[in-house]
Design goal:
The protein is α+β, with helices and mostly antiparallel strands. The chain contains five helices and twelve strands. The strands form three sheets. The chain has a six-stranded antiparallel sheet with strand order 3-4-5-12-7-10, with no helix packed on it. The N terminus and C terminus are likely disordered.
Length: about 200
């Protein structure tokens, strides 16, 4: 079944998915509008689920849970709180290319959630593409140490420690270290289509 269906009034249920969703949403301080936006559904549909007026299909429930994020297993454990994901350095996925090391912190089961990437670029190294940066995503970052030359289509910026950037991956880009010291970056990759991209 792919559509949400009305609840059977006579069926007694110990577990109320709508109440559980509402509880988790409030714990995160999210409005219905924000959670429905993240889950790619209408605010009215989420409201009806939370009120118990419709029972979510498994597909709909999984989409909402990815937006929270919480696993299906933890969702059905009513006592489970939303626990943060912690990634020790040794647990992060290491991606290398000449002069570049990327350390990707991501959890299985939470596709579509932001991914944190630590980056090290040696002098003269650059990145223009990587499996860590999917095509339909936003790439945000901050320079932790060193200097970054960001080339976005025809425009070039030099960023120092504390400077940040954000752009959608539908544009051609280069992250370059044109200086004689190591460049350390912290990046966040967020999936999602580009809504507005105004060029001045």
């Amino acid at each position: 079944m792919t559509d949400d269906s009305p609840l059977n009034e006579s069926s007694a249920q110990e577990f109320d998915p709508g109440r559980r969703l509402r509880q988790l949403r409030l714990e995160l301080g999210l409005s219905q509008r924000e959670l429905s936006r993240r889950a790619g559904m209408t605010n009215a549909n989420l409201s009806m689920i939370e009120q118990g007026r419709v029972s979510p299909s498994l597909q709909t429930l999984e989409r909402i849970l990815r937006a929270i994020p919480i696993s299906l297993e933890d969702f059905f454990r009513a006592d489970a709180a939303i626990s943060p994901s912690v990634f020790a350095a040794a647990e992060q996925i290491r991606i290398t290319q000449p002069g570049v090391e990327l350390f990707v912190a991501t959890a299985s089961g939470f596709e579509g959630q932001p991914t944190v990437v630590r980056g090290l670029l040696k002098p003269s190294a650059s990145i223009s593409d990587s499996p860590a940066f999917p095509k339909n995503s936003w790439l945000s970052g901050v320079v932790a140490q060193g200097y970054l030359t960001l080339v976005l289509e025809e425009t070039k910026w030099t960023l120092g420690a504390g400077d940040a950037f954000q752009f959608h991956r539908n544009r051609s880009f280069h992250l370059e270290n044109q200086h004689n010291q190591d460049l350390h970056l912290t990046l966040v990759v967020s999936s999602g289509a580009q809504v507005v991209d105004i060029k001045v």
